[in-house]
Specification:
alpha+beta, Penicillin V Acylase, Chain A, 5 helices, binds Taurodeoxycholate
Length: 325
Amino acid sequence: MCTSIIFSPKDHYFGRNLDLEVSFGQQVIVTPRNYNFKFRKMPDMKKHFAMVGIALNAGNYPLYFDAANEKGLGMAGLNYPGNATYYKEKEGKDNIASFEFVPWVLGQCSNISEVKELLKNFNIIDLNFSDKMEASPLHWLIADKSGTSIVVETDKDGMHIYDNPVGCLTNNPQFSKQLFNLNNYADISPAMPKNNFSDKVNMDGYSRGLGSRNLPGGMDSESRFVRVAFNKFNAPHCETEEENVDNYFHILHSVEQQRGLDQVGPDAFEYTIYSDGTNLDKGIFYYTTYTNKQINVVDMNKEDLDSDKLITYELLTKPNFNHQN
Ligand SMILES: C[C@H](CCC(=O)NCCS(=O)(=O)O)[C@H]1CC[C@H]2[C@@H]3CC[C@@H]4C[C@H](O)CC[C@]4(C)[C@H]3C[C@H](O)[C@]12C
């Protein structure tokens, strides 16, 4: 499972947790403007916006899990099994494979209204990257540096584009159902609860934090959706980049999957392999990994963004202990 958010305390931070039981060998990859993006059914994109994110380098093709471009548009693909449907090729449409969707959008759009325009002629097609790498069933959160976000889901009954008032996404069920489910948590609050139960019962507020007692704590996608939305809406908005990045990671880590809690096979547990976030206003990419909680930084502006070659960084996973004596 995964969780993706846009957090807008001052600048705007977009990214995700990637939860899985196996690692793909993904890296931080900066794709500069003149890297030739090939598409299966559409012409090459020779010049495009530069982007940074996490991807699998598959024979010099960056298969992005999530990324953000130099204009401050971000996009993440999250698992959507059983629902995600990819269609047959259609004449006259922009036929894009699911694994091409991120570069297709981030390569040419600057903001959400341009994405909505682009998607008017969009058709997501049923193609595998290769025999060995089948198309994953995904849905997408797309957000820009105004803080606006949308969700794109391609279901059996067609493509849906939802405006996203909460700025987060997890996995199943459909986004509309996730939003509806928030109704069940309307009374969750950071404040101490008022006794609406009965004036016949004395409730003395025996513990701090009782307002969030009924916040769901599970690893499942509905629980994570409610939890991350609540935690994000109530996170402080600070002045400095360090404080805001720190708060951003507190939000994502609050829905982290700790190893051992989400069993997916006899001896297999899903866990949060990495958490990442890009400052959409500044093009600075941050990440932590399960074993390395230090915040690591790749600033895309420090690269030659006019180059035509992928720029890759290995994820730093070594635990960082500061010995004080
Ligand atoms: C597995 C991940 C979702 C995490 C998640 O939700 N896990 C719960 C599993 S479960 O639902 O609980 O069982 C998703 C998120 C993004 C995906 C990549 C996107 C690019 C590319 C697309 C190609 O088509 C196939 C290969 C490819 C590298 C993809 C591999 C994999 O699919 C990635 C990593």
